[in-house]
Design goal:
Rossmann fold; alpha/beta; 2 domains; four-stranded parallel beta sheet; five-stranded parallel beta sheet
Length: 306
């Protein structure tokens, strides 16, 4: 029997994604009913990238579903020494699912190719599917629907933008990207071509016009977390800030707009977003962060067929 993974949304239909979101709402509203759903099951959590929300939410999810999680730091295991396919073929004999937060999609794909248990992409350079599911869940809670909702993503086109475009168009959302800079490591032309065919994704650099039509405005860091404090990246960081500062989500842009304000965190106040926008009554940033837990529970239950 083939194993279903969640490494991006390519092999997931809009209806399947909707079922996950419906389940996430059900689990969130009736948490006690699922306390033993994953009894005696174990999730291996492999981290090559730093993490706050991904580690906390997946570990808490397994605990609250009656299962167990193991934290595996890439640098303190033999993952750093051995061939990945060999380590995975050992791990899948002990684990019921694997969540991997890695530097490259190629590594996540290799895990999925060799694993006999479900692999969940907890973030790589191309995709961040569990983040996008939490975002969609948050929009449903605040807007009551996804179909026809116009989400404007502002910033650098990156892994999060890919998953919002891919998942959002499959779910009937209107996605507008205002991205004067493209992170080439994140580029997936096939994904963008498929999104373009739906007629639900468009690009523009006219920020004010895009925001005027928006139901949701979303931003993300201009510098990937692994480079933000790296002195070797300082010159590139400065270049990006100088280029991107006109695209900051701030009080001047959003003060009179009735739009949801979203950010996937970690937040860098004064860069991609100002403190006013973070604390605005329209900000749902911490709701979407909380919803990582509930969306991931639904992913685990779906992949483990519970």
């Amino acid at each position: 029997m083939s194993v279903k993974h969640m490494i991006n949304f390519k092999n997931w239909s809009g209806e399947e994604l909707r079922q996950i979101l419906d389940l996430a709402l059900e689990v969130k509203r009736n948490q006690k009913q699922y306390w033993n759903a994953l009894d005696h099951l174990t999730l291996g959590m492999i981290f090559q990238k730093t993490s706050t929300r991904t580690r906390v939410s997946f570990e808490v999810a397994m605990t609250q579903l009656g299962g167990h999680s193991i934290y595996l730091d890439w640098r303190s295991t033999n993952l750093i020494l051995a061939e990945l396919k060999d380590e995975i073929r050992y791990l899948d004999r002990n684990l019921d699912a694997i969540m991997a937060r890695l530097m490259t999609f190629e590594q996540v794909k290799e895990m999925a190719d060799y694993s006999r248990v479900p692999v969940i992409n907890g973030c790589d350079n191309k995709y961040h599917p569990t983040q996008a599911l939490a975002d969609f869940l948050t929009i449903i809670e605040h807007k009551g629907r996804l179909e026809g909702v116009n989400l404007v993503y502002v910033g650098i086109h990156n892994n999060v933008a890919n998953s919002l475009v891919e998942g959002g168009t499959k779910l009937g959302m209107k996605i507008t990207t205002v991205t004067p800079e493209f992170n080439e490591a994140s580029r997936d032309q096939e994904l963008l071509d498929e999104a373009a065919k739906t007629g639900l994704w468009e690009q523009t650099l006219d920020l004010e016009a895009a925001v005027a039509k928006a139901d949701v405005v979303y931003t993300d860091t201009w510098v990937d977390m692994e480079f933000f404090l790296d002195p070797k990246f300082e010159e590139e960081k400065k270049r990006r800030i100088d280029k991107m500062i006109p695209y900051q989500l701030n009080e001047k842009l959003l003060k009179d707009k009735k739009v949801l304000i979203m950010h996937d965190m970690p937040i860098h106040p004064g860069y991609e977003i100002d403190r006013w926008a973070i604390e605005s009554p329209n900000s749902v940033i911490f709701d979407q962060a909380e919803n990582r837990l509930h969306a991931e529970k639904a992913v685990l239950l779906t992949l483990l067929k519970k």
